[in-house]
Design goal:
The protein is 29% helix and 19% strand. It has seven helices and eleven strands.
Length: 222
């Protein structure tokens, strides 16, 4: 899909199905969507679409070596994205999903390097924000990197996105201002369990939950 003028769809709970269908059409045509999350707006493309992923990297100006977050609408959507679900991931999903916790899994073997950045891992979040979940349950996983050009402040309004990207995007789902605030906590469960970004869910809460299942956090962030 080659952008002309960016479409703006105002989110309304009564028209979720229609909005989801519009999003699905855009994604199938290699399109880029800005959609609201529980903190900031994110840039959504289909995570299995190489052409759309290339557009995302180009439009955002993403630095090489930085993986792309994936958002899901329910746990059943994990299957095509991950190679395995380590025990620590199961514990953390049961405790903190839906919620502001991004879990880094071993990536499925076929998942694009444009998502994993060659790390063989993928960060995934199941948001607690109902509008986002309602949409993703209908359309499936999408990327969720913040809807700003590299180095700029993540946006909390559709107006900021329009100013930042002009007509480079195909669709903005406008749900009004998002709360902003702290980002999700990011935890890697592929080997020694480690927090790689502090965020909304506290380290103490994670340590306590893991310890209750005889699992322990590695203090080394490297």
């Amino acid at each position: 899909m080659v952008s002309g003028m960016t479409m703006i769809e105002r989110y309304d709970a009564s028209t979720v199905s229609a909005i989801a269908e519009r999003m699905r059409q855009v994604l199938v045509e290699n399109g880029l969507i800005a959609l609201p999350t529980e903190s900031f707006y994110g840039l959504a493309v289909a995570p299995f679409n190489e052409q759309a992923l290339a557009r995302l990297w180009q439009v955002k100006g993403r630095s090489k070596g930085k993986p792309i977050l994936v958002l899901i609408g329910e746990e059943s959507q994990l299957g095509p994205l991950v190679q395995t679900i380590p025990p620590a991931a199961t514990v953390l999903m049961n405790a903190f999903w839906p919620g502001p916790l991004t879990i880094v899994f071993p990536a499925a073997l076929g998942l694009s390097d444009a998502v994993t950045a060659g790390t063989r891992s993928v960060g995934i979040r199941l948001s607690a924000w109902q509008p986002l979940c309602e949409l993703l349950r209908r359309i499936g996983p999408v990327t969720g990197t913040s809807a700003n050009r590299e180095g700029m402040t993540p946006p909390t309004t559709a107006e900021e996105i329009s100013q930042g990207f002009g007509d480079a995007l195909d669709l903005i789902v406008d749900a009004g201002p998002t709360p902003g605030g702290r980002p999700s906590t990011v935890i890697d469960v592929r080997g020694p369990i480690r927090i790689i970004r502090d965020g909304t869910i506290s380290r103490d809460a994670i340590v306590a939950e893991l310890a209750a299942h005889s699992l322990y956090l590695n203090p080394d962030r490297r």
